[in-house]
Design brief:
This is PhoA, Alkaline phosphatase. The protein has about 230 residues and is α+β, with helices and mostly antiparallel strands. Helices cover about 20% and strands about 30% of the residues. The strands form 3 sheets. Strands 2-9-8-4-5 form a 5-stranded mixed beta sheet. About 5% of the residues have low confidence.
Length: about 230
């Protein structure tokens, strides 16, 4: 069998990328400055939400940069085309209390097998119950480590001017993917020659839709992530 060095190199890179993506320090936080809600978050005008900031200081591992933990990080917010303001001025709230803790994680499977975790110190703040009242595009910027930045673009959707829905039924189901519904139908209802002799109640709904779920820490979401997005 003939094998070229380039193919071996490509395979090694592929395997390396797979190992590198096995674990993440924190979902939706690719740098040492973490800003939540992350970029591309959508809100309704006037909707309340929390903002969480975290600055990570790795003590070892590939992300170690030798800087002390930055406890003086700041957050600025601006609507597109308007003045940039400090978050406390923009939302008219007090500066939140600084929180500090630490955690460990494994950068890859090799580190886990060798039992060599990476240690991370954290400085954090949380702005509670804030809101964006005007529809449009907003930019939030976390400034930390003497010039480093993490930016998030948020979109605020306008409320509908005309109320079209009279009655709404909010149905929240856990484990309601098409495959799971099919399995439940197969177990609960008799079929002859591939034809079900009875149907589930939800099969008789006049309208049935699918919800696309989103998550920052998994491809197949759990009930908490799915429920949040349905509620939004």
């Amino acid at each position: 069998m003939k094998c070229t060095c380039s193919s071996i190199g490509a395979a090694a890179l592929l395997v390396g990328s797979v190992f590198a993506q096995t674990f993440r320090r924190l979902g939706a936080c690719e740098s040492l400055g973490c800003l939540f809600p992350p970029s591309q978050a959508d809100f309704l005008a006037g909707q309340y939400f929390d903002i969480r900031l975290e600055v990570h200081q790795p003590m070892n591992g590939s992300e170690f940069i030798g800087l002390p933990l930055d406890e003086n990080f700041t957050l600025t917010v601006s609507k597109k085309g308007e003045e940039v303001q400090n978050a406390t001025e923009f939302f008219e709230v007090e500066e939140p209390k600084l929180e500090k803790w630490n955690f460990t994680w494994y950068e890859d499977l090799f580190a886990r097998d060798a039992k060599t975790p990476s240690f991370v110190n954290v400085a954090a703040k949380a702005y509670r119950r804030v809101a964006l009242y005007e529809p449009g595009e907003y930019t939030a910027t976390l400034n930390y480590n003497n010039g480093s930045k993490t930016e998030a673009t948020w979109f605020v959707r306008p409320l509908a001017e005309e109320r079209k829905a009279k009655n709404i039924i909010l149905f929240i189901g856990d484990g309601m993917t098409t495959a799971m519904i099919t399995a439940a139908r197969l177990i609960a209802h008799k079929q002859i020659n591939g034809k079900y002799q009875s149907l589930m109640a939800m099969d008789k709904f006049p309208i049935l839709g699918h919800q696309m779920t989103h998550s920052i820490d998994s491809f197949i979401t759990d009930s908490a992530n799915s429920a949040v997005w349905r509620h939004r």
